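Your task:
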Amino acid sequence: MIKTGNNPFTAQWYMFSFLLIIYFMSFSCIGTGMAYLPAREDISNKIIISSTKVVFDKEYLDSIRQTKPNTYSIFMQTRTFAITYLSDGLKVKGYIAMPLSTPSALPCVIYNRGGNLEFSALSDQSAAYTLGKIASWGYVVAASQYRGVQGGEGREEFGGADVNDILNMIPLLETLPEADASRIGMYGWSRGGMMTYLVLSKSDRIAAAVVGGGMSDMFDTKNRRTEMAGVFMDLIPGYEKADARDTALEARSAIRWPERLCKKTPILLLHGSADWRVHPSQALKMAEALYEHEHPFRMVFFEGGDHGLTEYQSAVDSLVKSWMDYYVRDRKTWPPLAPHGS
Protein backbone atom coordinates (compact mmCIF):
# COMPACT_ATOMS: atom_id res chain seq x y z
CA MET A 1 0.00 0.00 0.00
CA ILE A 2 1.19 3.52 -0.79
CA LYS A 3 1.34 5.60 2.39
CA THR A 4 0.90 9.33 2.68
CA GLY A 5 1.86 10.43 6.15
CA ASN A 6 0.21 8.10 8.62
CA ASN A 7 -3.25 8.01 7.01
CA PRO A 8 -3.87 4.78 5.00
CA PHE A 9 -7.28 6.10 3.85
CA THR A 10 -5.57 9.02 2.09
CA ALA A 11 -3.22 6.61 0.34
CA GLN A 12 -6.13 4.48 -0.86
CA TRP A 13 -7.91 7.58 -2.13
CA TYR A 14 -4.89 8.67 -4.20
CA MET A 15 -4.54 5.18 -5.65
CA PHE A 16 -8.25 5.09 -6.56
CA SER A 17 -8.04 8.53 -8.22
CA PHE A 18 -4.98 7.49 -10.20
CA LEU A 19 -6.66 4.33 -11.49
CA LEU A 20 -9.81 6.30 -12.36
CA ILE A 21 -7.81 8.77 -14.45
CA ILE A 22 -6.07 5.92 -16.30
CA TYR A 23 -9.46 4.27 -16.93
CA PHE A 24 -11.03 7.34 -18.55
CA MET A 25 -7.87 8.15 -20.51
CA SER A 26 -8.04 4.71 -22.09
CA PHE A 27 -11.56 5.45 -23.35
CA SER A 28 -10.65 8.88 -24.68
CA CYS A 29 -7.70 7.46 -26.62
CA ILE A 30 -8.90 4.12 -27.93
CA GLY A 31 -12.62 3.92 -27.29
CA THR A 32 -13.40 5.42 -30.71
CA GLY A 33 -10.74 3.39 -32.46
CA MET A 34 -8.33 6.29 -32.87
CA ALA A 35 -6.73 9.17 -31.02
CA TYR A 36 -8.26 12.63 -30.85
CA LEU A 37 -7.55 14.66 -33.98
CA PRO A 38 -6.54 18.18 -32.94
CA ALA A 39 -7.69 21.25 -34.84
CA ARG A 40 -5.11 22.19 -37.47
CA GLU A 41 -4.22 25.61 -38.80
CA ASP A 42 -2.98 24.15 -42.10
CA ILE A 43 -4.20 21.08 -44.03
CA SER A 44 -1.75 21.14 -46.94
CA ASN A 45 -0.57 17.75 -48.24
CA LYS A 46 0.34 16.03 -51.50
CA ILE A 47 -2.96 17.02 -53.18
CA ILE A 48 -3.82 20.16 -51.22
CA ILE A 49 -0.80 22.27 -52.10
CA SER A 50 -1.79 25.26 -49.97
CA SER A 51 -4.43 26.13 -47.39
CA THR A 52 -5.38 29.23 -45.46
CA LYS A 53 -7.71 29.13 -42.51
CA VAL A 54 -10.65 31.50 -42.97
CA VAL A 55 -10.61 34.04 -40.14
CA PHE A 56 -13.06 36.92 -39.64
CA ASP A 57 -12.28 40.07 -37.70
CA LYS A 58 -14.02 40.87 -34.43
CA GLU A 59 -16.12 43.69 -35.87
CA TYR A 60 -17.61 41.39 -38.53
CA LEU A 61 -18.26 38.61 -36.02
CA ASP A 62 -19.92 41.02 -33.59
CA SER A 63 -22.19 42.24 -36.39
CA ILE A 64 -23.10 38.68 -37.41
CA ARG A 65 -23.75 37.70 -33.80
CA GLN A 66 -26.30 40.50 -33.48
CA THR A 67 -27.97 40.27 -36.89
CA LYS A 68 -27.60 36.57 -37.84
CA PRO A 69 -27.23 34.49 -34.69
CA ASN A 70 -27.66 31.19 -36.55
CA THR A 71 -24.79 32.08 -38.89
CA TYR A 72 -22.66 33.13 -35.93
CA SER A 73 -23.35 29.79 -34.25
CA ILE A 74 -22.15 27.94 -37.37
CA PHE A 75 -18.96 30.03 -37.46
CA MET A 76 -18.27 29.18 -33.81
CA GLN A 77 -18.77 25.43 -34.30
CA THR A 78 -16.70 24.93 -37.45
CA ARG A 79 -13.44 25.81 -39.21
CA THR A 80 -13.08 26.54 -42.90
CA PHE A 81 -9.99 26.53 -45.11
CA ALA A 82 -9.50 28.17 -48.51
CA ILE A 83 -7.40 25.68 -50.47
CA THR A 84 -5.50 25.25 -53.70
CA TYR A 85 -5.43 21.64 -54.85
CA LEU A 86 -4.27 19.67 -57.86
CA SER A 87 -6.74 18.46 -60.50
CA ASP A 88 -5.44 17.07 -63.80
CA GLY A 89 -2.17 18.85 -63.05
CA LEU A 90 -3.94 22.21 -62.65
CA LYS A 91 -3.95 24.34 -59.52
CA VAL A 92 -7.66 24.69 -58.68
CA LYS A 93 -9.26 26.73 -55.89
CA GLY A 94 -11.71 25.34 -53.37
CA TYR A 95 -12.72 25.10 -49.72
CA ILE A 96 -12.74 22.55 -46.91
CA ALA A 97 -14.93 22.85 -43.79
CA MET A 98 -15.12 20.64 -40.72
CA PRO A 99 -16.23 20.81 -37.09
CA LEU A 100 -13.87 22.39 -34.57
CA SER A 101 -13.63 19.04 -32.79
CA THR A 102 -13.00 15.82 -34.73
CA PRO A 103 -12.63 12.99 -32.17
CA SER A 104 -12.77 10.45 -34.99
CA ALA A 105 -12.79 10.41 -38.79
CA LEU A 106 -16.07 11.91 -40.01
CA PRO A 107 -18.27 11.15 -43.03
CA CYS A 108 -17.88 13.55 -45.95
CA VAL A 109 -19.98 15.68 -48.27
CA ILE A 110 -18.77 17.15 -51.56
CA TYR A 111 -20.70 20.34 -52.29
CA ASN A 112 -21.08 21.43 -55.93
CA ARG A 113 -21.68 25.16 -56.32
CA GLY A 114 -23.99 26.62 -58.93
CA GLY A 115 -23.43 29.45 -61.38
CA ASN A 116 -20.48 29.84 -63.71
CA LEU A 117 -17.14 31.61 -63.59
CA GLU A 118 -17.33 34.27 -60.84
CA PHE A 119 -21.15 34.28 -60.75
CA SER A 120 -22.13 32.39 -57.57
CA ALA A 121 -18.51 31.51 -56.85
CA LEU A 122 -17.88 30.76 -53.19
CA SER A 123 -16.42 33.50 -51.01
CA ASP A 124 -14.89 33.12 -47.56
CA GLN A 125 -18.20 34.22 -46.05
CA SER A 126 -20.47 32.02 -48.17
CA ALA A 127 -18.17 29.01 -47.81
CA ALA A 128 -17.93 29.39 -44.04
CA TYR A 129 -21.74 29.54 -43.86
CA THR A 130 -22.87 27.08 -46.56
CA LEU A 131 -20.17 24.47 -46.05
CA GLY A 132 -19.96 25.22 -42.35
CA LYS A 133 -23.65 24.47 -41.89
CA ILE A 134 -23.15 20.96 -43.28
CA ALA A 135 -19.93 20.58 -41.28
CA SER A 136 -21.84 21.47 -38.10
CA TRP A 137 -23.92 18.31 -38.67
CA GLY A 138 -20.76 16.24 -38.24
CA TYR A 139 -19.22 16.12 -41.73
CA VAL A 140 -16.02 17.07 -43.49
CA VAL A 141 -17.16 19.17 -46.46
CA ALA A 142 -15.20 19.83 -49.65
CA ALA A 143 -16.12 22.17 -52.51
CA SER A 144 -14.43 23.15 -55.76
CA GLN A 145 -14.62 26.56 -57.39
CA TYR A 146 -13.93 24.68 -60.67
CA ARG A 147 -10.87 25.31 -62.80
CA GLY A 148 -10.18 28.83 -64.02
CA VAL A 149 -12.22 30.48 -61.26
CA GLN A 150 -10.95 32.77 -58.47
CA GLY A 151 -7.41 32.60 -59.81
CA GLY A 152 -7.33 28.87 -60.47
CA GLU A 153 -5.53 27.48 -63.50
CA GLY A 154 -7.24 26.14 -66.61
CA ARG A 155 -10.62 27.07 -68.04
CA GLU A 156 -14.10 26.19 -66.85
CA GLU A 157 -16.10 24.06 -69.31
CA PHE A 158 -19.57 24.10 -67.71
CA GLY A 159 -19.77 20.34 -67.34
CA GLY A 160 -16.80 19.24 -69.44
CA ALA A 161 -13.35 18.42 -68.10
CA ASP A 162 -14.12 20.51 -65.01
CA VAL A 163 -16.13 17.53 -63.70
CA ASN A 164 -12.72 16.08 -62.87
CA ASP A 165 -12.26 18.92 -60.38
CA ILE A 166 -15.05 17.28 -58.37
CA LEU A 167 -13.92 13.69 -58.93
CA ASN A 168 -10.45 14.65 -57.72
CA MET A 169 -11.99 15.73 -54.42
CA ILE A 170 -12.39 12.02 -53.59
CA PRO A 171 -8.63 11.28 -53.37
CA LEU A 172 -8.24 14.70 -51.72
CA LEU A 173 -10.56 13.62 -48.90
CA GLU A 174 -8.60 10.38 -48.57
CA THR A 175 -5.55 12.42 -47.52
CA LEU A 176 -7.32 14.06 -44.56
CA PRO A 177 -7.15 12.18 -41.23
CA GLU A 178 -10.35 13.97 -40.17
CA ALA A 179 -12.27 12.42 -43.11
CA ASP A 180 -13.69 8.94 -43.58
CA ALA A 181 -13.61 8.80 -47.38
CA SER A 182 -15.46 5.48 -47.41
CA ARG A 183 -18.57 7.55 -46.60
CA ILE A 184 -19.06 10.37 -49.12
CA GLY A 185 -22.27 12.18 -50.02
CA MET A 186 -22.75 14.81 -52.71
CA TYR A 187 -24.89 17.96 -52.69
CA GLY A 188 -25.33 20.14 -55.77
CA TRP A 189 -27.58 23.09 -56.54
CA SER A 190 -28.58 24.45 -59.98
CA ARG A 191 -25.54 24.00 -62.25
CA GLY A 192 -24.10 22.05 -59.32
CA GLY A 193 -26.96 19.60 -59.81
CA MET A 194 -25.85 19.04 -63.40
CA MET A 195 -22.31 18.46 -62.13
CA THR A 196 -23.65 15.97 -59.58
CA TYR A 197 -25.39 13.94 -62.28
CA LEU A 198 -22.19 13.93 -64.33
CA VAL A 199 -20.20 12.64 -61.36
CA LEU A 200 -22.76 9.89 -60.75
CA SER A 201 -22.31 8.77 -64.36
CA LYS A 202 -18.57 8.34 -63.77
CA SER A 203 -18.16 7.16 -60.16
CA ASP A 204 -19.66 4.65 -57.73
CA ARG A 205 -18.04 6.26 -54.68
CA ILE A 206 -20.99 8.50 -53.76
CA ALA A 207 -23.19 6.94 -51.07
CA ALA A 208 -26.07 9.40 -51.57
CA ALA A 209 -26.75 12.61 -53.49
CA VAL A 210 -28.97 15.67 -53.17
CA VAL A 211 -29.87 17.74 -56.23
CA GLY A 212 -31.59 21.07 -55.57
CA GLY A 213 -33.03 23.15 -58.43
CA GLY A 214 -30.84 21.02 -60.65
CA MET A 215 -30.28 21.31 -64.38
CA SER A 216 -31.02 18.00 -66.08
CA ASP A 217 -32.09 19.17 -69.56
CA MET A 218 -29.82 21.72 -71.20
CA PHE A 219 -32.03 21.88 -74.29
CA ASP A 220 -34.93 23.04 -72.13
CA THR A 221 -32.65 25.57 -70.40
CA LYS A 222 -31.45 26.93 -73.75
CA ASN A 223 -35.01 27.27 -75.09
CA ARG A 224 -36.46 28.95 -72.01
CA ARG A 225 -33.49 31.21 -71.18
CA THR A 226 -32.04 32.61 -74.37
CA GLU A 227 -29.30 34.46 -72.46
CA MET A 228 -27.72 31.09 -71.62
CA ALA A 229 -26.61 30.74 -75.25
CA GLY A 230 -23.85 33.24 -74.49
CA VAL A 231 -22.72 31.22 -71.47
CA PHE A 232 -22.60 28.04 -73.54
CA MET A 233 -20.69 29.82 -76.31
CA ASP A 234 -18.12 31.19 -73.88
CA LEU A 235 -17.56 28.08 -71.78
CA ILE A 236 -18.39 24.88 -73.68
CA PRO A 237 -15.50 23.81 -75.93
CA GLY A 238 -16.52 23.58 -79.59
CA TYR A 239 -19.93 25.17 -79.04
CA GLU A 240 -19.17 27.78 -81.69
CA LYS A 241 -19.61 25.02 -84.28
CA ALA A 242 -23.32 24.72 -84.97
CA ASP A 243 -23.15 21.02 -85.79
CA ALA A 244 -21.50 20.25 -82.43
CA ARG A 245 -23.99 22.01 -80.17
CA ASP A 246 -26.55 19.23 -79.76
CA THR A 247 -23.82 16.76 -78.84
CA ALA A 248 -22.42 19.17 -76.24
CA LEU A 249 -25.83 19.83 -74.68
CA GLU A 250 -26.78 16.15 -74.64
CA ALA A 251 -23.54 15.30 -72.83
CA ARG A 252 -24.64 17.69 -70.06
CA SER A 253 -28.31 16.58 -69.91
CA ALA A 254 -28.88 13.71 -67.48
CA ILE A 255 -32.47 13.38 -68.69
CA ARG A 256 -30.97 11.90 -71.88
CA TRP A 257 -28.96 9.19 -70.07
CA PRO A 258 -30.52 8.28 -66.68
CA GLU A 259 -29.39 4.67 -67.15
CA ARG A 260 -25.75 5.78 -66.73
CA LEU A 261 -26.24 7.03 -63.18
CA CYS A 262 -24.81 4.77 -60.48
CA LYS A 263 -27.79 2.82 -59.13
CA LYS A 264 -26.07 2.40 -55.78
CA THR A 265 -26.53 6.13 -55.18
CA PRO A 266 -30.00 7.23 -53.98
CA ILE A 267 -30.89 10.76 -55.09
CA LEU A 268 -32.99 13.35 -53.27
CA LEU A 269 -34.57 15.83 -55.70
CA LEU A 270 -35.63 19.24 -54.35
CA HIS A 271 -37.36 21.81 -56.55
CA GLY A 272 -39.66 24.79 -56.26
CA SER A 273 -42.76 25.27 -58.40
CA ALA A 274 -41.89 28.98 -58.87
CA ASP A 275 -38.32 28.41 -60.08
CA TRP A 276 -37.68 30.52 -63.21
CA ARG A 277 -33.98 29.74 -63.57
CA VAL A 278 -34.42 25.98 -63.94
CA HIS A 279 -37.97 25.13 -64.99
CA PRO A 280 -39.76 22.80 -62.55
CA SER A 281 -40.61 20.42 -65.39
CA GLN A 282 -36.95 19.39 -65.49
CA ALA A 283 -37.19 17.91 -62.00
CA LEU A 284 -40.54 16.27 -62.72
CA LYS A 285 -39.24 14.64 -65.90
CA MET A 286 -36.04 13.57 -64.15
CA ALA A 287 -38.08 11.93 -61.40
CA GLU A 288 -40.10 10.04 -64.00
CA ALA A 289 -36.91 8.91 -65.76
CA LEU A 290 -35.39 7.70 -62.48
CA TYR A 291 -38.58 5.82 -61.68
CA GLU A 292 -38.66 4.15 -65.10
CA HIS A 293 -35.05 2.99 -64.63
CA GLU A 294 -35.68 1.76 -61.06
CA HIS A 295 -33.19 4.20 -59.62
CA PRO A 296 -33.70 4.88 -55.90
CA PHE A 297 -34.85 8.47 -55.41
CA ARG A 298 -37.16 10.75 -53.48
CA MET A 299 -38.63 13.99 -54.76
CA VAL A 300 -39.93 16.91 -52.71
CA PHE A 301 -41.72 19.59 -54.74
CA PHE A 302 -42.20 22.89 -52.90
CA GLU A 303 -45.27 24.91 -53.76
CA GLY A 304 -44.29 28.49 -54.56
CA GLY A 305 -40.62 27.77 -53.95
CA ASP A 306 -38.06 29.87 -55.83
CA HIS A 307 -34.79 28.64 -57.36
CA GLY A 308 -32.94 28.59 -54.04
CA LEU A 309 -36.01 27.49 -52.04
CA THR A 310 -35.35 30.47 -49.80
CA GLU A 311 -38.90 30.31 -48.42
CA TYR A 312 -38.27 26.76 -47.21
CA GLN A 313 -34.66 26.88 -45.99
CA SER A 314 -35.33 25.23 -42.64
CA ALA A 315 -37.25 22.38 -44.28
CA VAL A 316 -34.53 21.96 -46.92
CA ASP A 317 -31.80 21.76 -44.27
CA SER A 318 -33.78 19.15 -42.35
CA LEU A 319 -34.35 17.03 -45.46
CA VAL A 320 -30.72 17.21 -46.58
CA LYS A 321 -29.37 16.38 -43.13
CA SER A 322 -31.72 13.42 -42.71
CA TRP A 323 -30.81 12.08 -46.17
CA MET A 324 -27.07 12.34 -45.55
CA ASP A 325 -27.30 10.94 -42.03
CA TYR A 326 -29.35 7.94 -43.16
CA TYR A 327 -27.46 6.93 -46.29
CA VAL A 328 -23.96 8.37 -45.76
CA ARG A 329 -23.27 8.54 -42.04
CA ASP A 330 -25.24 5.42 -41.07
CA ARG A 331 -24.78 3.49 -44.36
CA LYS A 332 -28.45 2.45 -44.49
CA THR A 333 -29.99 0.83 -47.57
CA TRP A 334 -33.29 1.56 -49.28
CA PRO A 335 -36.29 -0.79 -49.25
CA PRO A 336 -37.15 -2.98 -52.27
CA LEU A 337 -38.10 -0.87 -55.29
CA ALA A 338 -40.31 -3.53 -56.90
CA PRO A 339 -44.05 -3.43 -56.12
CA HIS A 340 -44.69 -5.15 -52.79
CA GLY A 341 -46.81 -5.03 -49.66
CA SER A 342 -50.41 -5.93 -48.91
In short: The beta strands are 48-53, 78-87, 90-99, 106-112, 140-144, 179-189, 208-212, 267-272, 297-302.
